[in-house]
Amino acid sequence: MTTYFVSRHPGASNWAAEEGVTVDAVILHLDPALVQEGDLVIGSLPVNLAAEVCARGGRYLNLSLDLPPELRGRELTAEQMRVCGARIEEYRITCVEPTDAAASL
């Protein structure tokens, strides 16, 4: 089992380390083909990638924040993340049915 922390933000990596989150690899971008059954993927992934993690037998743990509008788009420090309630929450995501959604609208 491998634990991946996916983030391109230094503040997020620092926050995880300061909070005692143990990981095997910190990566900037996730290639879902890396994920094997039982792996943990921690980060803030697009829903389609998180669903692929789950479909491959991995567990997806979202790095969640209660981010006010004035902080969106800014690099946050570990302390700012704590103030914004940074936490790790596990989600199980399943694609209901792959379709061309635009055609059905």
From TrEMBL:
<dbReference type="Pfam" id="PF09652">
    <property type="entry name" value="Cas_VVA1548"/>
</dbReference>
<protein>
    <submittedName>
        <fullName>CRISPR-associated protein Csx16</fullName>
    </submittedName>
</protein>
<dbReference type="InterPro" id="IPR013443">
    <property type="entry name" value="CRISPR-assoc_prot_Csx16"/>
</dbReference>
